Amino acid sequence: MHKKLQKYSIGLDIIKKIKKSWTIIMSIKYKFNNKIYKYKGGQKDSYGYLIYDIFKYYLEQNSNKTYEELQAIFNPLHKEFSGKNSNKKVVFDKKDFLNWFNSPNNNDGDKHKRYFGYGKYAPPTNYNGIELYFTTQWGNKNGDYGNINTFIDFTINELNYSIEIIEDLTIFDKLVSVLRDKEKEIFSRKQIISMVLDKYPSTNETSIIPSDYCYNKKNKGSSKDELFLYLENAEYKYVGTNKNTNVKSLIDLFINILEINNNDELTDFGLKLESISSQLNNSNTFFYVYTNDAKQIIAKPIGGQARSQSIKTGLEKCLNNSTLKCNELTNPDNIYGKAIIKYIIENFTSPSTFTQEDSTSITTKSTPINKILYGPPGTGKTY
Questions:
Q1: What is the C-alpha radius of gyration for the chain, rounded to an integer number of angstroms?
Q2: Whole-angstrom distance, CA of residue 110 vs CA of residue 112
Q3: Partners of 237 in the β-ladder
């Protein structure tokens, strides 16, 4: 890589493999020829205009290319347009553009917006007597900006143009970036900090505090954005974002910490809880909770039969009940539900402000809870 571009290669890595991560995409800015471009910028400073301005700059620096050569250079940079069956191309001359625009098979209702050179965006680019039209489409409807990443990679590494990629990311954004595709993996605090610093070396190490982003552990003044379950031995299980916004997500979060067992004959396995149901006699109050490949919640009393059929349904009804009386947990499959509900509330919400907003949503407020819970190591007991 060209020496003057080495400082930008780290910045490029910020987004090179990120898909469908709107928070991070919206935080990135580019600087090219002393002009700054950003996600959905205003007139002439959005990502699309960045790509178009690079193209025009290339034309200024290379005055002897043919139309066919320009197509060979730029068309492969767009994944959707590079196929033989695509009727769109990155670069059109006037004849090819009009053929595409007026084709009876072109049912695109926004075709007048698809190219720089037509409509409100810009007039055609005149190059050696040829009118050129350049596509405006570089993202897609799923939020994947891979085509932009490809074009910028080409600009830096092949054309040797300087593009500064400006980091404007929060610690939360950086954590989401480095932990992508690592859901359910367990890390130490040191490992998390190391991952962030490896990708974003300019980050202040003291600002990377994993415990600020836990569902079941809160520091004073910590972020409202949660990513981890805090486990024993100062370990963190990455479970992803937005896990406590509704009842289903709370239950999914609980399942996430459970051990998997597909053999119900196994004894003394899973998260150990004490039943608070009056339907169990005093000699059989403890039970184990685990899950299986079907993501069921299975409760098995010591020396008893494993039950699972209606537990999740009962939990949903109970968590949607603002009084938390759990009257729905009365059949034999759900007599363990009250203890599970108690565990979920104490570890992932605050019972003092547990209220019902609608049929699925809840509002919680984080308050310190100091409980000693039962269960084997790594099952998320520590608060």
A1: 28
A2: 5
A3: 186, 229
